[in-house]
Design a protein that fits this description.
By secondary structure, the protein is mostly helical. It has 11 helices and no strands. 40% of the residues are buried.
Length: 261
């Protein structure tokens, strides 16, 4: 179910220009805060823009932000965690020390601090959210390497003359992929919430961008008179986060031998 919902959102984001009946940024002052109707399925916002069209276009923005940020965390965190766990000693001590410091900060507050230093905008959000994901991947990658490097196949690889880089890439890394993939999918849900929260606070995508968090921020002033301006962007965030959580749980059940037992 999670995979199906995610694929639907990806398809919607890719083909949004061909699916939307209206321009997501075009204003119609005669339709300000109009409720859902046959003409406008999700109603119109405070500028008279079609909310349904804006949500479809916002899917691409949300998936792009979250996907790029998680990819950044996966690449940087995995490399640092794998080398720290494999070589040990002072390198591992430094990696563990820095990771523990970063994990001591709540993820959302750390993202706010980073994006405030970089500056608001999509680039700042991607860097900030990706930075908050790095410690999680370091911890998982390091733990997996510490477990795998003591296996017999690593000892056998050393005995036949394999160098350290070859052992990491050919033997250890393939056995560390499963937990990293599970974390990747589960982290996507958390990243979507952080990115939407930053946009809601005005630190992410800026109006008139149809980003879901920004749409929530714009509609909060009309919760009593036009609640649909916030309900539908909020539902879009909720459904996509739920889909990634379902997908991550399913992968964990399928790839983790302990779950099968």
């Amino acid at each position: 179910m999670g995979v199906v919902i995610i694929l639907i959102f990806i398809a919607v984001g890719v083909f949004a220009p061909h699916l939307t009946p209206y321009d997501p940024r075009k204003q119609n002052l005669r339709m300000i805060n109009k409720g859902p109707s046959a003409e406008h399925w999700f109603g119109c916002d405070q500028m008279g823009r079609d909310i349904f069209s804006r949500i479809l276009h916002g899917a691409a923005i949300t998936l792009c932000i979250s996907g790029t940020a998680v990819a950044m965390g996966l690449i940087v965190g995995s490399i640092v965690g794998i080398f720290g766990g494999f070589y040990g000693g002072k390198i591992d001590f430094l990696v563990t020390y820095v990771t523990d410091i970063l994990l001591a900060f709540p993820g959302f507050l750390l993202a706010i601090a980073v994006v405030a230093a970089i500056g608001p905008g999509l680039t700042g959000v991607i860097i900030a959210v990706g930075f908050t994901s790095i410690p999680q991947f370091i911890r998982i990658a390091r733990g997996s390497v510490l477990r795998e490097k003591e296996r017999g196949y690593v000892t056998a690889a050393r005995a036949i003359g394999e160098n350290n880089l070859s052992i990491i890439t050919r033997y250890i890394l393939p056995n560390c992929v499963a937990p990293l993939v599970i974390l990747l999918t589960l982290r996507m849900a958390f990243v979507i919430l952080i990115a939407s929260g930053l946009s809601f606070l005005g630190l992410g995508a800026q109006p008139p961008s149809p980003e879901w968090g920004a749409m929530l921020s714009e509609g909060r002033a009309y919760l009593q008179t036009a609640p649909h301006t916030s309900i539908f962007p909020g539902l879009a965030i909720m459904v996509l986060v739920l889909a990634f959580n379902l997908f991550g749980d399913g992968l964990r059940d399928a790839l983790d031998p302990r779950m099968k037992l």
